[in-house]
């Protein structure tokens, strides 16, 4: 599940993830 109320779309979580488990994509991709 993803908490859109908390996410600001900054991408820090994706950049800091050591195993690249998070990727930032535009909605609809």
Give a written overview of the molecule.
- The chain has one helix at residues 12-16.
- The chain is an all-alpha fold and 29 residues long.
- The protein has one domain (1-29).
- It is globular, with a radius of gyration of 10 Å.
- The model has no long low-confidence stretch (mean pLDDT 86).
The DSSP helix count reads 1
Structural class: mainly alpha
Radius of gyration: 10 Å
Q: How many strands in all?
A: 0
Summarize the structure.
This protein is mainly alpha-helical and 29 residues long. It contains 1 helix and no strands.
Secondary structure topology:
Layout: H1 12-16
What keywords describe this structure?
29 residues, mainly alpha, 1 helix, 0% strand
């Amino acid at each position: 599940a993803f908490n859109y109320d908390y996410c600001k779309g900054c991408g820090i979580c994706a950049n800091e993830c050591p195993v690249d488990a998070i990727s930032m994509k535009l909605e609809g991709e």
